[in-house]
Amino acid sequence: MKIVSTLAVIGALAFAQPAFAQLEAYKDYDVKEATAIVTTVKVDSNMIDYYLEGLKTAWAPSNDVSKSLGQIEDYNIYVSQLPNSGDFNVILVVSFKNTADIGPSKERYEAFMAEWGSKRQKESRTIAKTYPDIRTITGSYLMNEVTFNK
Q1: What is the pLDDT of residues 123-145, one digit of tens each?
Q2: What's the domain count of the chain?
Q3: Per-residue CA distances from 75 to 17, 37, 40, 50, 98 (Å)
């Protein structure tokens, strides 16, 4: 009985070990100013090409406009080679220079709309209306890169 309780204490301490870690931001690791919005999407596996077609027609061109205006740094699309496993099979990433570039801005909006135009806005809304039939957004995350100091 004493051996069992000793093993239980040792086991509990082994699992508690990470609680003793005391890393300090900007001393032990840096948090980069660059920020990304990462969206995870579960697309019906037989509809991925259709979803990508919509992204190519509306999402990517709108990001190209934002990128040309300096409103975003870049954007990426990742598609799983195993579309039926897990909670998502497509990841959309939009990268910003810093978190401040994400907030609302009348100037950025007006500059974007002047470049994007009402016709393309209407077209992209028409395409986006079909998305709920083929996909579910499973998560949206505001991410910053972390690098460890040596």
Answers
A1: 999 999 999 999 999 999 999 99
A2: 1
A3: 39, 9, 14, 19, 14
